[in-house]
Amino acid sequence: MPTIKIADEAGACYGVERALQMVQQAVKDAHAPVRTLGPLIHNPRVVTSLKDQGVEVVDFASEAAGSALLLRTHGVTPQEEQIAKDGCVDVLDATCPFVKKAHRAAELLAKQGYAVYVVGESGHPEVEATLAHVPGSLAIDSVEEVAAQADAMRVAKKVGLVVQTTMSAAKLSEVVNAVLPLVDELRVMNTICEATAGHQDSCMRLAKESDVMIIIGGRISANTTRLAEISKLYCPATYHIEGTDELQASWFEGAEHIGITAGASTPEAHINAVKLAIEEIVGA
Length: 284
Description:
With 284 residues, this protein is an alpha/beta fold. It has three domains: 3-11 and 194-282, 4-hydroxy-3-methylbut-2-enyl diphosphate reductase, catalytic domain (Cobalt-precorrin-4 Transmethylase, domain 1), CATH 3.40.1010; 14-96, Rossmann fold; 98-188, 4-hydroxy-3-methylbut-2-enyl diphosphate reductase, catalytic domain (Cobalt-precorrin-4 Transmethylase, domain 1, 3-Layer(aba) Sandwich), CATH 3.40.1010.20. Helix content is 44%, strand content 19%. The protein has eleven helices and twelve strands. The chain has helices at residues 14-29, 44-52, 78-87, 97-111, 125-132, 143-148, 150-156, 169-179, 194-208, 222-234, 268-282; strands at 3-6, 34-37, 56-58, 68-71, 90-93, 115-119, 138-140, 158-163, 185-189, 212-216, 238-241, 257-262. Strands 1-12-10-11 form a four-stranded parallel beta sheet, with helices on both faces. It is flat, with a radius of gyration of 20 Å. Dimethylallyl diphosphate binds at residues 42, 74, 124, 221, 223, 265.
């Protein structure tokens, strides 16, 4: 009978738990329609569950006038936050504290005269929110993108880096090593969150001892996608799913050790449901 093990650190982080508690309290106390500015977290199944409770997603703060609006965990631009405060009955800031830390770090670097770059995925809502706190800053997440900015960095001489909270330490190291020869001074504010680092280390350890790895979380979730990438390095039979309905019995044929982990936007109940479903499939 195969063993099934959940990673030591897996599932919803503090920022996500905090946001979910805030939205549930908002629904309970509602004196106006409850909305979220963008998906509250990157977990489509949770967002759907909230919609069933009457919590709708809006893309722009101007669409939420007269409502109680929660700012997403990934953060929003200062401009959108101000529009929300001007037009909404109530504004609840569910921005993850680690994302707030990145905002403050970027602002500090700018004040100290550094050319600011965010090591993260261009277009990701967290990265876009951080960039908006320092007009003129840019996102880079590869050695190739550093090369494209090489001339500008040489001219700036002083470069400061902040990091998307869900970025891997390995990716950060690659970027730092590429930037360092280009500048006179480099300051790195390591804003990778503690939960991200813990999830990634725990995933790596479990993948090394597993025949099959199941990664649970939204496909649009950057931190969950990174867990899948890390897992595949050590366990090729890695499968990224959002729910139990995606599990396939063929994945587990001949497996002796099955590992499970989950992204920071995945509630514990989802993890337990997947473990139970796998137990039923393999007869554990």
